[in-house]
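Inputs:
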Amino acid sequence: MTEMPLLEIDDLAVNIGNEPLLSGINLTVAPGEIHVVFGPNGSGKSSLIKTIMGIPPYRVTSGDIRFEGKSILDFPIDARARLGIGLAFQQPPPVRDVSLSALGKALEIDTDRIAAEAARLGMTGHLNRGLNDGFSGGEQKRSELLQLLLQRPQLVLLDEPESGVDVDSLKLLRSVIEQLFQRDRPIRERTVGGIIVTHTGAILEHLHATRGYVLVNGKFMCSGAPLDIFDQISANGFGNCLAEARIKEKIHDFLKE
Amino acid sequence: MTSSKNKLDLRKVGYDESGETPRSASFLIEDDTARVASSSERALVMASIRQARVDYPWVRALEWSLVDPETDEFTRIVAQHPDPAGNFIHVKEGAKIRFPAQSCFLLKADRNEQVLHNVIVLEPGAELHLITGCTAASYSNVGKHIAVTEIFVRAGATLTYTMVHDWAPEVEVRPRTEVIVEDGGTYLSNYIALTRVKHIDTNPLAVVKAGGTARFNSIIYAKAGSYFDVGGRVRLLGAGARGEIVSRVVATGSKVISRGLIEGGNADTKGHMECNGIMLDREAVIHAIPELKATYPDTELSHEAAVGKIAGDQLNYLMARGLSEEEARALIIRGFLNVKIDGLPASLQQVIDTMIEQAMAKEAI
Ligand SMILES: Nc1ncnc2c1ncn2[C@@H]1O[C@H](COP(=O)(O)OP(=O)(O)O)[C@@H](O)[C@H]1O
Ligand SMILES: [Mg+2]
């Protein structure tokens, strides 16, 4: 592909304080591509996503993150958002004093558009409530996707967009995710790409994601076709990848000595 | 109309001289002279207290029947004043006044001490929305506003009382207010102060009889150099009485003491208090003093208080949507101050909303 990649993560290492959290992360997302990150709880998936968005306290200790060829490491969060990076948080914080409609107004988004998208996501009744304040798990997920629909990001980062969502809502979320990734357009015309963190294969079915990775202890292991990886995890758990991780670590330690 | 030279737009404190906003009655006092006292409703008397003492001699018996003149040096100043000015409002039994009544206390002369005594009476079953705006004619005014206000909400009556303070940096303000809420009556107070003032201390008391309700909402944006000692006290003395105190304070380079006291003194009484404060800088001080006092076993009293800076994760979240840190901060403050008040007519809620917008707009500069 001659096109400029949307996102390039280049040998990235991230600390929290002085504790290493992620290392050796490489990932390139071209327009139209969806990359899927699996991994056990606590392996660093959300940390990776938030690092791309520039959210503290994650500290990049080496490597680079580029958006359309330009390093964004020095960009504050809002600058990254305005470049076209959008994040659906796994656990959005309650913002009691700001409602979805107040936020929409502050972002100068057309109120009719807000109303229409909210209706589609069944969030009309939540428009004037404090954001995420007392929202159920499913409502939080719909609210996050609603905000991304309104924001129309070019690089879409979805952190477990379907966890805790019931079967009926899942269908709705899937169609919204397909829309975010322009699945209604021919492949060549797609300009949006992104990363999805997930534990289930359910949302991947019609997305034709590009590649999957398993994050273990802050490193990518077992990359492959997303649905293959998912099947493998479903059958064997993360065991195989953990074993691979352990072997790699041993080799690494051996080479160091 | 006030004097034609007076270009001051009193709409900023909710007082409309233009007649554009429907008002049932108007009262305007300049320093200690009543300039306007008019009512378009037979059932609603809007008068100067001096006139009322003549026209309705029974008013004298109400004066000092709630507030003790010996409360402090400021009540004493009012008590010792030979003829304090002030506002008298009377709503006849069962009269439900549709449009809000408005009053305004204006400090006009420089270095003046305004001494007032106000009496408000809602007879049984009456209803009134009242908005009072207090302001100084000039930002450079030096002055004092000392006011005793006694409010009588008779059985089954409802008063919503919105008080807007927009003083000047060198003004001192000492309102002393007591309210009696008789059986089944409702008193709802909204206090809004969003501009710089030298000193305000006021801690109104509502005594609530059986089945009555008293609520105090305060919205305070304490700008640099301001000192506020404000709050509300509710004594639930009748069975089934309800009380609520909600205060929202934003402080920047200022000191705010935010008080609240709810006393549960009879069967099936319930009271709740919420004191929340946002600290904007190192120079600010917010001292929240929520107090609950039970003097009867069958009472349910609770409070929440939270004071601190704006949470970083909230700012980050809003920034991830594309707002700058400053925009995110302003959005949170605006929402924090903009509590929607149940039972308030839309036109008065709008006064409050506009005030908050203006206070925020000034801050953005
Ligand atoms: N802000 C933080 N402060 C301290 N530790 C954190 C923070 N964020 C994540 N961690 C730690 O980093 C590890 C990875 O967390 P996370 O990225 O949320 O994992 P995942 O999303 O894969 O479940 C966990 O051990 C977690 O406790
Ligand atoms: Mg996570």
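The first strand of chain A starts at residue 7 and ends at 16. Flag for discussion at group meeting.
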